[in-house]
Design brief:
Layout lengths: L1 H7 L1 H15 L3 E7 L3 H16 L15 E7 L8 H8 L30 H7 L2
Parallel strand pairs: 1-2
Helix pairs in contact: 1-3, 2-5
Length: 130
């Protein structure tokens, strides 16, 4: 369950996002969390603060010239927001409903920019193969 990953090992999620951000040359990551999961949100906040204090998030990560930050978005938690275009609409403050494609979210996603999204479970599993 995604909630248990966020509560038990939020650092693995952040690490996976940072690696994905570096790979995609992205500079901002978003974690969409159901507002009904206050412990997950609290632990993510702590993990993000710790990562920033260690220089693993923010500007010029570990002197590499790479900038990346992560924001938490507490959403309404509708099941439909698992679909990428519905998630994108919810992040933009609109009703989380899937849109007719094209364009695909990889072409015109959040804020009109390309969007790469994945389920939370994949990020810590990704780290096992690195």
């Amino acid at each position: 369950m995604d909630r248990s990953i966020l509560e038990a090992d939020p650092h693995a999620v952040l690490e996976g996002m940072i690696i994905c951000g570096y790979t995609l040359d992205a500079h901002q990551g978003y974690i969409y969390v159901r507002a009904e999961y206050p412990m997950a949100i609290h632990r993510l906040d702590i993990a993000i603060d710790q990562a920033k204090n260690y220089g693993l998030l923010g500007r010029n990560i570990l002197g590499s010239g790479f900038d990346f930050d992560i924001s938490i978005y507490p959403g309404a938690g509708a099941f439909v927001c698992g679909e990428s275009t519905a998630l994108m609409y919810s992040l933009e403050g609109r009703r989380g409903m899937p849109r007719i494609k094209p364009p695909r979210s990889t072409e015109a996603g959040y804020g009109g920019s390309p969007l790469s999204s994945t389920t939370l479970k994949r990020l810590p599993m990704f780290l096992q193969f690195c």
